[in-house]
Amino acid sequence: xxxxxxxxSYFIPNVHKNxxxxxxxNEVVKxxxxxSVRVKPNWSRCGQNHHDSLGVxxxxxxxxxIFLRKDEQGNYNINAxxxxxxxxxxxxxxxxxxxxxxxLDEWLNISLVFKKNKSMTLICNSSMNRISFEDDLVDYGSxxxxxxxxxxxxxxxxxxxxxxxxKIKRIGVFNxxxxxKEINKFFENYxxxxxxxxxxxxxxxxxxxxxxxxxxxxxxxxxxCKNIYNTDGRNLMF
Amino acid sequence: MAKKKVRTNYDNPIYVDMEKKLNDIGPGMxxxxxxxxxxxxxxxxxxxxHHPRTHKISENEIKRNPSALHNTRxxxxxxxxxxxGKRPVECDYCWGVEDTxxxxxxxxxxxxxxxxxPHFEQITTSDWREDxxxxxxxxxxxxxxxFKCSYCAPAFSTTWMQEIERHGAYPTTxxxxxxxxNKAENKMPILQKEHNPYTEAFWKWWPDLYRxxxxxxxxxxxPLLSNDTFKVLDYIIxxxxxxxxxxxxxxxxxxxxxxxxxxMIEKLKRIEDxxxxxxxxxxxxxxxxxxxxxxxxxxxxxxxxxxNVNKVMSSLDRVVLTFMSTYNALSVPxxxxxxxGIYDLKESYASPDRYWNSATFLDSSxxxxxxxxxxxxxxxxxxxxxxxxxxxxxxxxxxEFASDNIGYSDIEIQKxxxxxxxxxxxxxxxxxxxxxxxxxxxxxxxxxxxxRGTDFCSTFPELEEFYKQCLxxxx
Lengths: 238, 475
Description:
B: nine-stranded mixed β-sheet
């Protein structure tokens, strides 16, 4: 399990520095993909404004991912946010609210499923909300995948960080639009042999770790890196 | 002539600059011909850079001039070629790289080393006949060795020599470790107990050589079985005005009797405490974990070896230990255990007092010869395992190579990734080559088990089926 206090985060860069991965993030985002996380947010720290909403899992830039936000009525929501590439306007932000009912101290199984040129689906526990669209997503080829924030790149304004506060105890990123059945299996009883059909990019269920990395159980070599800034204030990519 | 390079932004300006300076002298210029030497005193051979073949040192020359251990007449001719715009044929490894790719060849890297670069002017303005003291010296005093590693040879191991003299070459198609080759190349080792004119010349030269040394590395054989190794250490200890810029390195299999390990530690401790050198590194060797490593390196007792590793690291506060791992086909099934073991050492012995940023290093180099034991012989199903080992190293990596970070560096990761790249590379004729290599794999280890009383199948159950298939191959 990972605990987030609002200042720590993890990432996987768009390309593998040592070329030991069998799949790069910049390939994953060009096709169908699924993000799945089991989370228990500290909702009391989740705000209404963009800067105090919480990023759970995100591709940075024109952020795409799963975010948590309080609405004007004081309800807590699980959102999907992403940007599509179109003619006019050039890009468009799309927000999808899960609409799920949940207890504030409940562990939540959340998935974001993207089917290229077809749909984006946000699933929370047993509730699902889908939006269909045929446009492409904006190019996320140079984005990093962040866990625990929207974007902690060194040169990004703090208002865009959206650091998560709470716990995460299962993470899966797949190069496939997983079915409901596959998603349930991931959360309940995922086995290594399932890698053959889910095309994983990164998985952690056991959170085997060093001081700096979380082991990638998908065996594609995409270990999750702890976000560390060097003495110049830049993110250490390793 | 060297091909014009297509340069990228990634080119290190140090190498760009060095290549230009070298090419201004001539397309074959390389400072290593002056600044570096490997001396194989047990056979009376040397080479400057590991790419050209070794050549015989003249006994007559060293009688008059002991520095002719390095400054041989033969080598001076090659230097002359370099200074007069020619490319010595023996350096064809670099010419191959330069003529077929945009990469820098090793002549650029070696010339840019801190033991070469400062001497550029002195060398390029000198006469080719002049003697020079090398700055980077590797020396093997003797081939005495209590191990007979499966891929080693009689020229580097007395126990191998005894086996070959008793049983002859192995029944592979290339007659592995036949002494005929050594005889033809005039490389029959001089026994340690016999008078060795090359060692005698070395000690005459040493007081002068020592003062100029940047790096001195003692190899073998097993260096701790040679009195000359301890003589070097005593010299450094007793020298009133030691060369404190010296980088001292000693190879050892750390499988020799305890009293010799203790003797080495005691002397290195004095050198360390009295700051008589700039840095000290011990190079040791192991190619995988446990019983399988004992099979590969015949003579190794793994647990005792690991105890000695811990003894060295706990006794010497500043010394760095590098594991030279000759990654071969038999390394593959359990190399991940070695990766974990060395990571544990990095954690246990990390200290900012160490000479280098990490207490230990894993230097994984793939075996090229004998071809029957390289990773190429293994079926492709093992490719994934090699990649997973590179991924494991990456998982255990440091974010930045600094003494307060503990884990593997990019270089340690890349060296295993390179093995995967080589294993998965394809070339014309590979299939037929591998068939012959597998045939030899079967022949070699069948004979190995017979001669040495080992049991391949019980030691490597993961490879039993493959081994049996190799035994069935008919050429």
